[in-house]
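FORM 7B: Structural annotation worksheet

SECTION A. Query
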Amino acid sequence: MKSNDLITVDADILGGTPVFKGTRVPVKSLFDYLENNYTLDEFLECFPSVTRELACCVLESSESALLTPVAA
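SECTION B. Predicted structure
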C-alpha cells in the first residue's frame, strides 16, 4: 500500500493533522501509545475505527521510510 492509501491530510479534518485514512484518528496517536508501552491491541481497542491491517501497514511504511538509505 502507498502512504496516501493509509494516511489522509486534509485541512478540513483536524486542521490538516495526518490521520488514518477513513478516520479522524491522528497517526501520531499510534506512535504515542507505542512509546508509552501500550500494545497495538490496546491502541486498537481505544480506536476501533482503525483496523489492525491499517495500523500494521502504517508501521511497516514508517519502518521502510526510516531504514531506506537516502541518496547523496
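SECTION C. Observations
Residues 58 and 64 are 10 Å apart (CA to CA). The mean pLDDT is 92.

SECTION D. Sign-off
Analyst initials: ____
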